[in-house]
Every structure is written in structure tokens, then in C-alpha cells.
């Protein structure tokens, strides 16, 4: 029987893919169904130890519990590295009265020799809290970043096979060979969301890139809308999975697949006055990668829905759309 996870009628039923499964055809079938149905699924046995995942959450809390003056010393720069305060990001400006009631921290991939290159903003050096203030913090985040990229590549191979591509299609040098991969620590305030009045932990949005890996604590909050064109929209909670990761597809994969695969709307709704923590890992191809409709996903009756776009151009615009001081 195929692995699925459910809670109740208000909770999404998602496929669960075991990355240690020897029958790759089973994994491809489960993932393809998830990509067609919802764009969200779980993965287990992914290779990141529970000890490391727990450590990342502990270190994340250590940072967010610092005085605001200390956090502001590593305030996000224009290369999107560092700390993002409460209300800094507005993911759904048409429905939000303020920004998101969350704070975050961006950690990207560093590539030597790009410090002064204006065409490589997503490979610039990271901002790090002082070692005196948070000893060992950087090392923990760099270790998780490295492990998460390995997991993302493993998932990308199954995605490629589900699109009838070679398994290494997304791992080529101009794609995940030099990825724009961003680890983002997130902390949601203990503030009740009120969607009817435009108050959200995180507003409704789709992710920008190829895929996202998400680790969460045990506090419910993530919701998905499988049909963004439905009126009214139907929102379902995604249940946390201890030790597992939630995976969702991004806009670039939707463009590659000509909308066959879903980049699904999601948001965070926080109730009960509980703080919520999550660890998101956003994976995009290299700066110069041209994202365009795959030949297997277009035909005379199904022409490409989007023009080709360079990855860095698309990402830069999306950040400007959602971060107040970049717009």
C-alpha cells in the first residue's frame, strides 16, 4: 500500500516518499502523483540525522532569543543574507494589512571570487552572528546546509524521472551544479492570525525556485490551497512529521513543466498563542540557468505558457516584490 499521511478533513492527505526505497519506480509514481495533485509531499529516511535537525532548531531559537539590538547587527543586506525582522516581508500584499508576523535569517551558498560581481548576488558572502555571542552557530548551519543540498539533489533525480528526463537532468553544472540554495530559519510570533482581517504568520504565496525542503516543529500552522483558482479557496493544514521533511515545488519547476506540475499556494496561520519555528531550504538552479518549457511538456495543443527567463532575473524580481526595502 502506498504511504500516505492524514489527520482529519481539514488536513491535507499527502504522499510520503521513502528516499531509502530500493524500488525507484514506486518512488517515481508516488512523487509524480503528488506533483500532479498538490505539489506537496513528505520525504523520510533522507539522510539528515535527527540529532542534526534537533541541533539546528536549538541554535535557531538561540539566535531569535537574542536582544533585538544584537540581531540587528546582522540585518539582511541587498544580497538577501542575514536577519529579517518582523513585518519585513509581505508575501500577499493584496490581502495583508501589514507584513508577515515572522522573523527570519537567510544563509546562502558562498562562491569565492563573486564578492564584487554584480551579476552573482546570490553567491555573495554570508552574514554571521558573532562567534562570541553564538559559539558554534555558524558550523551547525553550514553542516545542515551541506546535508540539505544532498537531499535536494536526491529529490531532483526522482522529479527528473517523473518528467521522463535523465535522472541527472537537474544536477547539471548550469543547474544544481552551481545552485542558488538558501537556508532560511523562521520564527513566528505567538500572535493569533486573522485572515479575514489580513493578519498572517506568512501570507499566501508560491515558492520561487525548483523545490523547497521544510523541517517544522510540532506546532501546526502551514496550510496549502491545492486549487488557487477555486472560489472560495479551500485551505488545508499540513501536519508536521517528526524526522521527516515536507517538500513542495516552486515556480521554476511549474514553468519547466508547463504547469503540469504544481507550484502550490501556501501560507502560515498561527493560533493558540504558540510560537512556531521552521527551517526552510530553498533550492534554485544557477544564476545563468534559463528556465524554459521542457520539450516533453509542450505540443501544438499545449504551447508554452511562460517565456524563457534567467533564474537570477526571476529571483531578484520576486525578492523585490515581497521585501519592503528592496521594492
Automatic annotation (TrEMBL):
Protein's name according to its UniProt entry: 2-oxoglutarate (2OG) and Fe(II)-dependent oxygenase-like protein
Keyword Plastid: no
Organism the protein comes from: Zostera marina
Biological classification of the source: Eukaryota, Viridiplantae, Streptophyta, Embryophyta, Tracheophyta
Keyword Lyase: no
Pfam families, alphabetized: 2OG-FeII_Oxy (PF03171), DIOX_N (PF14226)
Alphabetical keyword list: Iron, Metal-binding, Oxidoreductase
Family: Belongs to the iron/ascorbate-dependent oxidoreductase family.
A GO MF label: dioxygenase activity
